[in-house]
Amino acid sequence: MQVQFKVSRQKPNGNPYFQTFLLDVEAGMTILDCLNQIKWEQDGSLAFRKNCRNTICGSCSIKINGRSALACKENVGSELRRFSHSSGDDIPEIAIAPMGNFTVMKDLIVDMQPFWDNLEKVDPYVSTNSREIPEREFLQTPEEREQLNEMGNCILCGACYSECNAKSVNPSFVGPHALAKAQRLVGDSRDTQTEERLEHYNEGVEGAWGCTRCYLCNTVCPMEVAPMDQISKIKQQILDRKDAQSSRSVRHRKVLVDLVKAGGWVDERKFGLYVMGNYFRDLAGIASILPLGLRMLSLRKFPTSFEPSEGTQEVRSLIEAVQAETHNKKP
């Protein structure tokens, strides 16, 4: 069958444009096979990364029809079934573009250095005092090792980083890939710096609190690492160690849970005052949200009263059950 591939082309410091290539392909051909065919048969100047061709190295990450994926994993047939564009002559189209949140070097090749720099910020190495003992083995039980399987599957392809909404608006955020690796270290029984790591990951919006829980990283991860779930585990361990006075980020989560437990949903009158105003202790924080509050009042969008949900008791029971289960799972 014939398929049109609309491929983003771009030179360093140039503007991107799409170039269309018409290929005769089979449904089982991977997108990487198609890119190879374009390069070998139609345009040798097309630039893209590849290596293993077996979903191991992560080199061939690109955007396929708007979502980040591995070119060696996705095939033509499944892609056309999932999301197909058709031109006027009814020839299906597949759009190919470089990953997001990266600077394009040429065509589909992006500069990965910031990706690696952000990974380095979480100190992604097991730190243990036993390293000071010569010929010491770092032993783990099968159960302890099993806790690392999910995060250990990460191949650092960059798909989660490419889709991350938080990264697109907050350049200082280390990214989901780094925090997934960070959770692997927090959960590693051999590591001796858990408390120091959690303090580091708790800093501002560079670490765990920079995640906006958009879920896109989980959606596109080709290895089912579920980066957002790993970030949530880090957040929970921080919450277990901190009270509401420790930081605004911690207070935000604790106030949210407390208000929902109390009324079945969030009491918006109290939420901003408790989080930003620190239970009326932070006058500067209250002043910062005062203009917003006045605008909401003028537009009649500020709730003047609060009625608890009819299902408040059920909501409270669910939250308490989850909290109890989380507590029971602690090592």
SSE diagram, text form:
Layout: E1 2-9, E2 17-24, H1 31-41, E3 61-64, E4 67-70, H2 76-82, E5 85-86, E6 92-97, E7 104-106, E8 109-110, H3 113-121, H4 142-146, H5 149-152, H6 159-163, H7 165-169, H8 176-186, H9 194-201, H10 216-220, H11 227-241, H12 248-263, H13 268-275, H14 283-298, H15 312-328
Parallel strand pairs: 1-6
Antiparallel strand pairs: 1-2, 3-4, 3-6, 5-6, 7-8
Helix pairs in contact: 3-8, 8-9, 8-11, 12-13, 12-15
The CATH class assignment of the largest domain is Mainly Alpha
Shape-level CATH architecture of the largest domain: Orthogonal Bundle
The counted number of beta strands is 8
Helix content, binned percent:
40-55%
Q: Which regions are unreliable across 5 or more consecutive residues at pLDDT < 50?
A: none
Q: What is the mean predicted local confidence, pLDDT? A: 92
User: What string, H for helix and E for strand, traces the elements in order?
Assistant: EEHEEHEEEEHHHHHHHHHHHHH
| CATH homology superfamily name of the largest domain | Alpha-helical ferredoxin
Distance between the termini: 56 Å
Beta percentage is: 5-15%
CATH topology of the largest domain: Fumarate Reductase Iron-sulfur Protein, Chain B, domain 2
Largest beta-sheet details: 6 strands, mixed
Structural class: alpha+beta
Q: How many DSSP H or I helices? A: 15
- Morphology call: globular
> What's the alpha carbon Rg, rounded to whole Å?
24 Å
For the record, the count of structural domains works out to 3
